[in-house]
Amino acid sequence: GAVVSQHPSWVICKSGTSVKIECRSLDFQATTMFWYRQFPKQSLMLMATSNEGSKATYEQGVEKDKFLINHASLTLSTLTVTSAHPEDSSFYICSAPDPSRAADEQFFGPGTRLTVL
Amino acid sequence: AQKITQTQPGMFVQEKEAVTLDCTYDTSDQSYGLFWYKQPSSGEMIFLIYQGSYDEQNATEGRYSLNFQKARKSANLVISASQLGDSAMYFCAMRDPPRGYNKLIFGAGTRLAVHP
Asked: In this predicted structure, what is the pLDDT of residue B95?
């Protein structure tokens, strides 16, 4: 199946710093990617839709200035957590649909575990 | 608004037995898609099975089958011949058309433990 990678797989940072997470589609072009957040023992919550060549669409309650999304190419979307605080500690997962496939399957990255001290 | 409900926080099953994980959904749309994903402790989301709202046959993928009852708005996952490696979190999800064709909303998940 299609492959989506994320980097880094985990990151620990000090409060107040910014952290960038990359999401790449390795063998297909993704005009759209999705960013999810998952707290321990909870479900995935959609944060935003990343659109290649245009602004991201954020879900209600997600701070745009806090979570900056850039979809610079058809294979790369980045999520930057700005001025991170301990409450931003979470598991961040990206996904992308492969438009060449007939089914609606989305391919998920392996996730990035962020810990803010 | 679209909603996915998984009422079983945890399930136990003996190895080699079958298990059913429940999922009900709520939508006013006629066209929608239902998914099941497996999330092991490593965190990756593994696609298991998909059912389209217009599919007349229940979806099957190896040991996974989806018991789709449209009138009852349920899409239960059946895992046959459980294996120890099936122990994981399982999420039911629905494509959310009004907000974007490929957007998924997820249920709360069910943690499955397979005992030897």
From this structure: 85
